[in-house]
Amino acid sequence: MPKKKVVSPEIVEDSLVNSAAAEQALEQEQLEEEDLESQEPVLDEPAPALEEKSEEQKEAPAKKSKKSKAPKEEPVNVLADKKEDKKEEERKVLLSVKNLDVKFHVRGRILTAIRGISLDIYEGESIAIVGESGSGKSVFTKTFAGMLDSNGFIDRGEIIFSDDELSDTVAKPTNFDKKLLDWVLNYLNRASLLEHGAKTYREILELKAECRRKLALSEEENEHIENRIAEAKYQLTEAINYKMTLSGKDNKAEIAEVKVKIKGYEADLKALEKEKKDALKKHKVDFKADTEYIEQYNAKLAELKACYKEEIKGELKPEQLERNEVLGKEIYLSCGRYDFLHRMFLINKLLRSLRTAMKLGVDLNDEEIRNKVFDNAVFRVKFLDGTTETQLHGTCVLNLAKIRYAKDWQKIRGSRIATVFQDPMTSLNPIITIGKQITSIITMHQNCSEIEARAKAVDLMNKVGIPNAENRFDDYPFQYSGGMRQRIVIAIALSCQPKILICDEPTTALDVTIQAQILRLIKDLQKEFGYTIVFITHDLGVVANIAERVAVLYAGQIVELGKVEEVFYDPRHPYTWALLSSLPQLAQRNTKLYSITGTPPSLYNKIVGDPFAPRNPYCLKIDTMVEPPMFKVSDTHYAKTWLLDPRSPQIEKPEIIKAIHEKLTEAFNI
After folding, report:
1. Which contacts (CB < 8 Å, 24+ apart) does range 246-252 have?
2. What is the mean pLDDT of residues 487-491?
3. Which of 104, 278, 416, 499 sits 20 to 30 Å CA-CA off 34?
4. What pLDDT is recorded for position 668?
């Protein structure tokens, strides 16, 4: 049996802001009403184990060593750290992504599309996101545009959007609001008494967590049976989906065979669920038989509860009263933009979250912790100045990963972050005139009349290169060519002068001549409007002409990041080598075009080591065992590969990309 773990106060504090399961346990109002047998176990997440691999290695170039021992210490992930380069420090970080995980519910299973991405996007820059299909490029940008599919969700991480205009918040409390603020302040003052007994309360939680672990299955037993249940559910779902694809007339025998399989999978699933239920029942019987432990548990719990009741009878300190007054104003500023019912719901949710934090003794004076506590309900508006008698002034901390309400996204999507898609007809309504589609966006986000909106729309059409814009204002999309439709989509995206323009392969469906025109248009308009470009593409030639920086994605991770010249002329990750080697412009006459062997890994499964290892001809043994950290090549260049570790063998890049500078200069006019 594995050694039992004790839940520490730090784990409990982390679970406050990250775990819905912990919130359920922490919001209990009366400790005496809890029933030990009905409580669900709280299990610590096991540390990820390294899979043992065979020592068989792929053949590599002559300069590659046969083995590479795993280093004892992993280098620090420097990608999320502050840049040391002075020029980078001078540029404002417009969007900061930290440790982002995005998952999807697909056929009863969880698919992890984005895995721990950290990236800073600067104001006014052009950054390209490149990689194979399925690498996570579009999903990554959809997270900060609020366009994830309904089955997708952000599991972990932050997306901090820096917008001074949106962040600035002013509210003038009404008489009702003043009474509401008084009620909120009284609630916070009562809840603050719980801080005096926080240490004892954490001891109570630890004691109960240990008891729940005794009632539950061990970590190994639970993981083993849950994996078998998940596999049975997956097989059942796949069989049902396959049966739906079969025709009744032509595949009667096959349908009958699939039905038999479905019944078998259903029986297996019921058996596994019964096995889990029986195992839990046995643990409960064994627990009740341990009368000595139960007596010790009840005595210790009663002692802690009595101590806790005495501790929370004290008086509030002056600093607590002062802090609560600021908290009350921040609650009002954070929820004031919603309608009455929605506002009251959020205020109650925030108060419960803050009460839980106080009960645990969390330091609410810490800005980062306070932000996370607020994020459980709504993003926080930090109080700056003002009084309830005049007006309150604050500033928002815009964490796009925590936005849950459509009203908040309406102020960001379109007006602050706009998107140009690959096929313009997916963005344009075929039965509404071009002019109407542009003016509807302008009137929605800007306070102007129809006449003013029309004038702005015609001006935009002229800027994106629509000839005779005034006369073509009332035309329908089918009356425009593909290139002209894409120009209209760009005009719509720029109608509210966004700060970030996401270009999701906008030139893929166009011919080469029109591609060059659209790229030139996007760059020219950037000089005029000053927006940041996030360009998604497979075409490295497009990257060379439009981007300042490049982020190479593979299996939902950034594997290399740097300036265009660094990634093109001095690539460090084997995947980047492979992408550059497959450029048709580098191929020699009478030679076979290079292609990357194999397929990307399944994102349903946990990936151990470097995800590119199975396709990497330069794979080291450690690549199959330990995930590489992000190594720093220069102040602006980073790569996620063990080849950059000083202890790794020295491996030269492929011959085809050694003299790449002249070829790229000639091919892409860099």
Report:
1. none
2. 90
3. 278
4. 61
Strand partners, 103: 112, 153
Q: What is the DSSP string of 391-424?
A: -EEEEE-EEGGG---HHHHHTTBTTTEEEE-SSG
Contact in structure between 653 and 577 (CB atoms under 8 Å): yes
* CB 262 within 8 Å of CB 239: yes
Alpha carbon 411 to its chain's center: 20
d(CA 545, CA 206): 58
Q: Which two tokens stand for residue 656?
A: 């085809």
pTM: 0.72
Rounded to 5 degrees, what are φ and ψ at 4? -70, 145
DSSP-derived letter for residue 591 is S
Q: 3-state DSSP call for residue 332?
A: helix
Strands (E) across 123-249 are located at: 126-130, 152-161, 168-171
- Element at 559 (helix H, strand E): strand 557-563
CA distance 249 to 260: 18
How many CA atoms lie within 13 Å of 83's alpha carbon, on the beta-carbon side? Answer: 23
Strand duo 93-106 + 152-161: pairing: antiparallel
The secondary element (H helix, E strand) that includes residue 443 is helix 434-445
Per-residue pLDDT at 8: 40
- Give the N- to C-terminal CA distance of the chain in Å, as an integer: 62
- Which residues face 381 on adjacent strands? 396
Joined together, the tokens standing for residue 158 give 């932050």
pLDDT digits (tens, 9 = 90+) for 90-137: 678 999 999 999 999 988 789 999 999 999 999 999 999 999 888 999
- 670, amino acid identity: I
Other CB atoms within a 10 A radius of the CB of residue 282 amount to 11
CB atoms within 10 A of CB 378: 24
Phi, psi for 161 (deg, rounded to 5): -105, 120
